[in-house]
Amino acid sequence: MTDVVGLLREEKKILQKRLGALDKAIGALVGDVVGDVAKTAKRGKKMSAATKAKLSKAAKARWAKVKKATS
After folding, report:
1. C-beta separation of 49 from 57 below 8 A
2. Where are the alpha helices (DSSP H) in 1-71?
3. Which of 17, 26, 45, 67 qualifies as a FRET site for 8, CA 20 to 30 Å off?
4. pTM score, two decimals?
5. Which residues contact 27 (CB under 8 A, 6 or more apart)?
6. How far is residue 3's CA from residue 24's CA, in Å, rounded to a whole number?
């Protein structure tokens, strides 16, 4: 009996995650703003060229570290 209850609880968690994903998808389709990134983009905030270059350099350094570790 406890195995059945455990399985049902696991299924409930899975279904809740799926429902959350569906809610996000519906929100995106009807135009709801989701998250701070969308709000920032909507306000027209732009990243400076210097900031973009700094982020690019940091990302390249991280990838170089990953590639070096796997070699």
Report:
1. no
2. 2-30, 35-43, 49-70
3. 26
4. 0.39
5. 34
6. 32
Note the Cα 33 to chain centre separation in Å.
14
Please, are residues 33 and 39 in contact by the beta-carbon 8 Å criterion? yes
Q: Whose CA is closest to 16, among 8, 5, 4?
A: 8
CB of 37 closer than 8 Å to CB of 47: no
Helix (H, G, I), strand (E, B) or coil at 71: coil
Q: Which two tokens stand for residue 53?
A: 């270059």
Q: Are 34 and 28 in contact (CB under 8 A)?
A: yes
CA distance 32 to 34: 6
Structure tokens at 13: 């968690």
